[in-house]
Design goal:
Bound molecules: pyridoxal-5'-phosphate
CATH architecture of the largest domain: 2-Layer Sandwich
Order of helices and strands: EEEHEEEHHEEEHEEEEHEHEEEHEH
Helix content: 10-25%
Number of strands: 18
Largest sheet: 9 strands, mixed
Strand content: 25-35%
CATH class of the largest domain: Alpha Beta
Radius of gyration: 21 Å
Structural class: alpha+beta
Length: 363
């Protein structure tokens, strides 16, 4: 696929850029987007950057009916020196292909798509906000476009990448949230699609989220779909606990989404010689740790918030107030180091960041 080049059609007009203090998550999009088509027998073809605009898609396109689609989420950051960088983008593209495999979507050329993303980010670089904690969110996704309402894998697809400037997740400092343990609905089960980043998992999560919000909670803690005994994830984040000096996180079991942030947190903790263990964690043992006074911290991890401390965890008649409702030391260090590396304020000993510049854009 080396002979591929991305054709660029520049937008004739430039949209007004938002003020950085008014940025919300995911409501505004930049001037351009990347598109590539798949059809048989050609495969993926016609990679192009075009002005951001609505698509024309047949109402019978398969994606509208049976949810054969996948997506990714990563960010571009400005460093204090004015460099643009991405955080472990290769991990997102590998995961996109794992999701593709689960959803019977043909694989993409990871290196080529990463190049295309860099080219798009560089072209729309004026949209990367520069104030503290802001970034440009990158959303690659694939939809099945064959006009056919039979249940089968599509023979046609579109890979699209759109960009959205996003504000600081923590405007008034990193704040612990209230979480409700969900013991009615489940997000995913082993053998299902929980490991894949696919829209259906999110559709399945909305009801529980809506109900917990009505009760004043920020998110739900998901339990396993079979016994509803073991902890899986928190909202759309992976989850960690610090118990008696040890950091624990649910082991990947076929229904948990493997986060890039989760992987980075595990590597950082090992680098700091803090014991970190991936294992099955039951709600009962967590409660026991709380009663014994050894549950020291709890936090979620994901690209959007990076680290989201949990100050309260509630279910049935139980309310666990973790670390006095304050952000724990480990959560705080992880947040500072990860964002430090992402924004280029701190040395990156792992080779996690990748620069986006003129050369990465030229093919
Ligand atoms: C995307 C996602 C995560 C977090 O993944 P990151 O790569 O760290 O952003 C965790 N859980 C679910 C269900 C997700 O969709």
């Amino acid at each position: 696929m080396e002979e591929w080049t991305v054709e660029v059609h520049h937008s004739k007009t430039k949209k007004n850029k938002p003020k950085t203090d008014q940025l919300e998550f995911g409501r505004l999009f930049t001037d351009h987007m990347f598109i590539m088509d798949y059809s048989e027998p050609v495969g993926w073809h016609d990679p192009r950057i075009v002005p951001y605009e609505p698509l024309t898609i047949d109402p019978s396109a398969m994606t509208f009916h049976y949810g054969q689609s996948v997506f990714e989420g990563l960010k571009a950051y400005y460093t204090p020196e004015g460099d643009i960088q991405l955080f472990r983008p290769d991990k997102n593209l590998q995961r996109l292909n794992r999701s593709n495999d689960r959803l019977c979507i043909p694989p993409i050329d990871e290196a080529f798509v990463l190049d295309a993303i860099k080219q798009l980010v560089f072209l729309d670089r004026e949209w990367i906000p520069t104030s503290d904690g802001t970034s440009l969110y990158i959303r690659p996704f694939i939809i099945s476009t064959e006009p056919f309402i039979g249940v089968a894998p599509s023979h046609q697809y579109k890979l699209i990448v759109i960009l959205s400037p996003v504000g600081a997740y923590y405007k008034e400092g990193i704040n612990p949230v209230k979480i409700a343990v969900e013991n009615q609905y489940v997000r995913a089960v082993k053998g299902g699609t929980g490991e894949a980043k696919t829209g259906g998992n999110y559709a399945a999560s909305l009801k529980a989220q809506e109900l917990c919000a009505q009760k004043g909670f920020t998110q739900v803690l998901w339990l396993d779909g079979v016994e509803k005994k073991y902890i899986e994830e928190v909202g759309s984040m992976n989850v960690f606990f610090k118990v008696n000096g040890e950091v624990i996180t649910p082991e990947l079991n076929g229904s948990i989404l493997e986060g890039v942030t989760r992987n980075s947190v595990i590597q950082l903790l090992k680098h700091w010689d803090i014991p970190v263990i991936e294992k099955k964690i039951s709600l009962d043992e967590l409660h026991e740790a709380y009663v014994n006074g050894t549950l020291e911290e709890a936090f979620g991890t994901g690209t959007a918030a990076v680290i989201s401390p949990i100050g309260q965890l509630s279910w049935d008649d139980k309310d666990l107030f973790i670390n006095g409702g304050k952000t724990g030391k480990v959560a705080k260090s992880l947040y500072e180091t990860l964002t430090g590396i992402q924004y280029g304020r701190e040395h990156d000993p792992f080779g996690w960041v990748e620069k986006v510049n003129e050369t990465s854009a030229v093919k």
